[in-house]
Here is the input.
Amino acid sequence: MKALVLGASGQIGAYAVQDLVEMCGVKDIVASSRKVVNVKKAMGDLKLDKKVKMMELDARDTDMVLKTIRSEKVDAVVNCAWYQTNLGVMDACLKGGAAYTDLGGFFDTCLKQIDLHKKWEDAGINATIGLGSTPGMTNIAGAAGAKKLDTVDSIDIVCSWGNTLPVKEAGWPGYSIRTVLDEFTQQSVQWVNGKYEKQQILGGEKEVVMPDPIGKIKCYFIKHSEPATMGKYLKAKNVTFRIGFPPQDMNTFLTLRALGFADEKPLDAGGCKVSPLDYLTAMYQRGVSQGRETPPKEEFEYDMFRIDCAGKKAGMPMTVTYYIVTWNDPKRNASSARDTAVPPAIVSHWQMTKRIKAPGVFPAEATVEPEAFFKELGKRKIKVDEVVTTAQKFY
Ligand SMILES: NC(=O)c1ccc[n+]([C@@H]2O[C@H](COP(=O)([O-])OP(=O)(O)OC[C@H]3O[C@@H](n4cnc5c(N)ncnc54)[C@H](OP(=O)(O)O)[C@@H]3O)[C@@H](O)[C@H]2O)c1
Here is the structure.
């Protein structure tokens, strides 16, 4: 049972390795990224450097990924590098016969990945894609809700985060700053009345109630892959995705967008040519790495998700709501961002043990058994609560 983790130096990749080793009990792991020095630093900070093999591997180099799959006899690949690498890595896995999982394809790439289904089915290999917190846990919660309903009218997803710091400074982005800026600059697509419908960036303003300490929060549409797949796979009429970040974080990201930090075109800065996005990414990667060096001693930051599945059961209206809450875990030196790293680790482990083996390319809602998955999350202090509302007639 051998796993190859790509992007293992990243905010999510490092925790995915940690979960594979400490919680899934996988003994053979290759942890890699474009710079081995970054992997060594990340693994060292999490005290995993003696437990895994570390190497330099660029996920864009499909031939090298395939060579590594073959030479290391890899059974499953967990792709935690940026999503632009997904298609190339899948190609290497298909040729090398390794199962595949990743953290999501940000709508368009996700659909291109699903289009590869037949090839994977013919090869007899499983790829379960979009396995983070969102997409990932959110898709699986949607599947759990849909299972309890006869017909599904809507699945509405809200993602939020925050911290309890006394100074209300902006929180640290819970995931790649590159993806955050993609979300703030690309038109969203929602699943409305059984069809994809383009929406304004940050349109669809709505107030929702999240668990404490968030309470009521305003949330907005952004582009995400849940509406790309869940409507079709769960036969839901409507699927929407909104973020409800704390106002100071929303303002920070809007300011970065207004200043042009999402721009990939190189700029002359003090004689160096660098794009604002690459520069911002490098600063973010430095911050992630520094954060792992000095683990916090208490719980102070959290991620929260709310998934409302509404429909009919025996002809009556019924709603199934999931609240998923994760605080940072000081004991294991794992931030709340582990909620994105744990799902691909669990699924990769299940692929290696053939618990997930359906040949083809699937989104998480199609292959992952919700209740068993939620129990695994519970072992990592990622808490899932289910609230069911039913109706009754007295006439
Ligand atoms: N589904 C979800 O819930 C969810 C949540 C968060 C993030 N994500 C997605 O997951 C991806 C990673 O997020 P993150 O927050 O971990 O980002 P991150 O901290 O920036 O980490 C990405 C890591 O990938 C490595 N990398 C980049 N390009 C690579 C390549 N070509 N080959 C190998 N390694 C490469 C980088 O390390 P080196 O510089 O050392 O190569 C970096 O450390 C993003 O696409 C993000 O959108 C999904």
